[in-house]
Amino acid sequence: MTDHAEHVPEISADQQVGRIFGWRRGFDVTWLLAIGLRSGIVHTLAAHPGLTAAELADRLALHPPYTAAWCRTAHGFAVLDLDRPDGPSGGAPGYRLAPHLDTILTDPSDPRYLAGYVLLGAEVATRDFEATTDAMRTGAVLPFQGRGDGFARLVAEATRGLQTMTAHGILPKLPGVAEVLDAGGTVLEVGCGTGNLLIAMAGRFPGARLVGVDIDSDSLAAAAEKVAAAGYADRVSVHAGRVADAVPDGVDVVVLVEVLHEIAPALRPGVMAEAAAALRPGGWLVIVDETYPSTPEQAREPEYRFPLMTGFEELLWGNVLPTREEQEELLRGAGLTGPVDRRLVGEGFTVLTTAKPA
């Protein structure tokens, strides 16, 4: 060890073994949840707590021994709690979801909703990591765009909680925003995806006009379908291509939710300049994204664990997460020179808000 080596706490070989087993358990529990969601067990127990494994198998036409194994394992890892524990008579136990998991795993309207994130890990990350093994030698990229409707919808579900938080928790608290939007103001969403946030904002601000821009045709088709189904087509529109073409008259708020890091670094200054130009004086820019560590030392800090995971999970997508310095340089370069409010939410999401100088 040199004098400049990183100082790390003492750890034994057995402790390292325990860490690896812990990481491996996390992989298995992710799949345990995904199988429970796919098979209908999670939603059925959310609606009918107390069912036995046999009752679940009967309702869902599942293989009884496998269903029993799923329930016993889920109980062991505190995904399920016993509703009717074994008594002296030896009757089969009933199961219920552990506290709050009914909401977290089955209620898309809740800001803590994570079912989409679980399924994204099981259905997309697993395949992408396999492909990344070869891509480590070639640098191959399989970008977000063009992966099909199913992929676009799954990514949208994975970020749905953040979209709910933005519509109901962030925008209404910005000075003057609720009043402007309720009076007919306009919100632009850059990277609107399949339209979940547009619909959430339309519901929260019934007087507002909403405009979404994206470059993925599968996502835009899904967004247009959702907007029409929600009955918002008279004041919510989606567009392919550039911001300037979608909102020639300017907007009061621009939002980007888990989008900035998905824009190629070389294109970010131009996109941010167009977004800033679209803002009317005094309008707000809201970015919900992730911040990559600026130094090797920061990589060990808890607030960067989630961004590090995202950065590695999305290597194959070609995504590069920006550091704090890069985020702020983009804002300044776009002419947004006012104070920037920065705060951390959830497991490692950064919320940036700044107003365009009046």
TrEMBL record:
GO terms under biological process: methylation
Entry-linked PROSITE patterns: SAM_OMT_II
CDD domains per UniProt: AdoMet_MTases
SUPFAM superfamilies, per database record: S-adenosyl-L-methionine-dependent methyltransferases, Winged helix' DNA-binding domain
Keyword Glycoprotein among record annotations: no
Domain of life per record: Bacteria
Domain Methyltransferase type span(s) in chain numbering: 188-285
Keyword Disulfide bond attributed: no
GO molecular function, one term: methyltransferase activity
UniProt keyword terms in alphabetical order: Methyltransferase, Transferase
Protein name: Class I SAM-dependent methyltransferase
Species for this entry: Pseudonocardia bannensis
